[in-house]
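QUALITY CONTROL LOG
STEP: pairwise intake check
CHECKER ROLE: data steward
CRITERIA: each record must contain a sequence immediately followed by its structure tokens, with no blank fields

ENTRY 1 OF 2
RESULT FIELD BELOW
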Amino acid sequence: MSEISTKPYLIRAIFQWCVDQGFAPYLAVAVDNRTTVPRNFVQDGQIVLNISPDATQSLVMGNELIAFQARFGGIAQNISVPVDNVSAIYARENGHGMAFEVSALPSGDAADTDVNIESLPSAVSSPLTDDVPEPPKGGGRSHLKLVK
């Protein structure tokens, strides 16, 4: 019997913590051919998604896949992200959250999917709502923890 990864459980736990605290949970995702996102919002092989209940509809966070509907530029889109591609989940307001190693992407995918964990709170360049303020600019190290 194979062991189930803790990653989807940790993602759901951080999501729930963010929602309970009134924070907007953001997902940093390495984009490959298994990821269904608007490609014009992808930068350097990654995208940052606002997955708060106010920004999404029909959010399903399974053990293998995270799927929901969201608006990009006013147009509703279906989003599908393999859990293996999630590199971090964090609160937009304070940057607290957790970072993960991204599983090896299938060959032929973009090689520039490395995620700079230190830059995640400032990498929020594709929020799902137009009136999202900039995240706080704190000096020093990120609050994200790399989980292997």
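ENTRY 2 OF 2
RESULT FIELD BELOW
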Amino acid sequence: MSMKIMPHHLQHPLPKPPVKKTETGKSGSPNFKNLLENNIEKQQELKISKHAEKRLIDRDIKLASDTWGEIGQKIKEAKQKGIKDSLVLTNEAAFVISAENGTVITAMHREEAASQVFTNINGAIIVND
């Protein structure tokens, strides 16, 4: 039985280390999604789903980074207490956030939340901002 050795150029090279790319918008500056995600992740390590991102933009919902940080901390506490999905109310907005994976699922203005029925949550967090 003969053993074949593959030419060097057909052998798989060692994997390259990951390179973090920053997406840019039309103007060449970092786009809104990256700025928002990077800022929020640095504050409290929350992720934002595409659905929630669209809601934040469409509804022009903006929170101070301190508020995002407090929400992130409360979500961590909720996860430690066994909460899977939580309704988070601030003075300005309402969010449904997965405590399991730290992801903002949806967002709306506080006034909109007053007429909503929230399902599939097992916790609530109220943040006075």
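INTAKE CHECK: passed for both entries
DESCRIPTIVE NOTE, ENTRY 2: The helical segments are 32-44, 50-58, 65-80, 110-113.
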